[in-house]
């Protein structure tokens, strides 16, 4: 009888011990740090997938965001200003945006901020169809022509101020607002003389379309005539930087890992991106990548990729204030931080 009692007690003790172990495991599981779960991040590309945002697309394709503990969702956008405003509104954590859009956002009470450069120079240009006897050597050669730009494009304000800066009447080039989807065809059909075009984005598209139509595309870069502005980069908000600095740091580092790989192995990058987006024209994508690689490397010595030059940001803020009439509402230092690219 005594042996039976002892055996029963031993079995009960084993069960209690096992239950205690299970409880301990469960308690450990529920008390595990939340940091083990990937941080969800939404990214707005500002337009369709293309070479200008290739570093983001490549980092996603290669799994580098996952390695950084980020669960990234990449979505197309509908223009720079809308993208920046949507980031500011909390619809996205990050976006591909430009300092003009950031400054206008902040001038209207927003909190958008750039945390790294991708286009360290302004990528904008005016494209035209080459023809015998027409050669652009000075801006006066463009007087009287019509420029087609998107309805919400900054060129509507930039061009008049830029012309004035170059000693020409602000209306020397007439600007018209078009749906961005018809700008390319409007140029080919000669309904406009000039079209807005962007390195790493629409410029290779327009060049390819012109070539297919038996035409040759010419271009005039704003920066070749005194427009010293910073171009697009990574945009988030002051609030997100303050509340999630580690997420910003990991996203920025993984993104520039993508751009570094794109610069070192452009063809491999194009193949990887095209595999994710089969509808892309690989020839156009490759040219976009080549142009973007040229824009991202204009950074000073002793700084990481993505460094936003203070003097160029000062010039950008000054020009935007004149072009858009924002006055002194926003300072250049409000537009960016180099904290994550130092």
TrEMBL record:
GO terms for biological process: thiamine biosynthetic process. InterPro entries: NMT1/THI5, SsuA/THI5. It catalyses: N(6)-(pyridoxal phosphate)-L-lysyl-[4-amino-5-hydroxymethyl-2-methylpyrimidine phosphate synthase] + L-histidyl-[4-amino-5-hydroxymethyl-2-methylpyrimidine phosphate synthase] + 2 Fe(3+) + 4 H2O = L-lysyl-[4-amino-5-hydroxymethyl-2-methylpyrimidine phosphate synthase] + (2S)-2-amino-5-hydroxy-4-oxopentanoyl-[4-amino-5-hydroxymethyl-2-methylpyrimidine phosphate synthase] + 4-amino-2-methyl-5-(phosphooxymethyl)pyrimidine + 3-oxopropanoate + 2 Fe(2+) + 2 H(+). Residues 54-269 form the SsuA/THI5-like domain. This is Thiamine pyrimidine synthase. Residues 1-37 form the signal peptide. Pathway: Cofactor biosynthesis; thiamine diphosphate biosynthesis.
């Amino acid at each position: 009888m005594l042996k039976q009692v002892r055996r029963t007690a031993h079995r009960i003790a084993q069960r209690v011990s096992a239950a205690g172990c299970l409880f301990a495991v469960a308690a450990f599981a529920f008390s595990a740090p939340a940091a083990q779960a990937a941080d969800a991040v939404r990214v707005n590309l500002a337009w369709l997938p293309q070479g200008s945002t290739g570093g983001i697309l490549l980092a996603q394709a290669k799994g580098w965001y996952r390695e950084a503990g980020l669960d990234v969702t990449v979505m197309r956008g509908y223009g720079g200003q809308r993208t920046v405003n949507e980031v500011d509104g909390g619809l996205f954590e990050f976006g591909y945006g430009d300092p003009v859009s950031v400054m206008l956002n902040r001038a209207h009470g927003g909190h958008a901020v750039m945390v790294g450069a991708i286009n360290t120079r302004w990528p904008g240009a005016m494209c035209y169809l080459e023809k015998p006897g027409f050669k652009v050597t000075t801006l006066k050669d463009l007087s009287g022509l019509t420029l087609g730009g998107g309805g919400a494009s900054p060129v509507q304000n930039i061009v008049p101020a830029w012309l004035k800066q170059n000693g020409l009447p602000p209306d020397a080039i007439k600007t018209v607002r078009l749906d961005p989807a018809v700008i390319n065809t409007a140029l080919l059909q000669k309904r406009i003389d000039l079209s807005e075009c962007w390195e790493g984005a629409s410029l290779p598209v327009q060049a390819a379309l012109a070539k297919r139509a038996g035409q040759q595309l010419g271009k005039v870069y704003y920066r070749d005539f005194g427009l010293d502005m910073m171009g697009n980069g990574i945009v988030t908000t002051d609030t997100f930087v303050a509340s999630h600095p580690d997420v910003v740091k990991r996203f920025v580092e993984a993104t520039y890992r993508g751009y570094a790989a794109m610069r070192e192995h452009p063809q491999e990058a194009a193949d990887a991106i095209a595999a994710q987006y089969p509808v892309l024209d690989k020839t156009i994508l490759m040219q976009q990548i080549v142009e973007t690689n040229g824009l991202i490397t204009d950074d000073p010595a002793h700084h990481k990729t993505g460094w936003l030059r203070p003097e160029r940001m000062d010039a950008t803020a000054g020009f935007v204030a004149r072009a858009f009439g924002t006055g002194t509402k926003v300072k250049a230092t409000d537009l960016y931080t180099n904290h994550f690219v130092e």
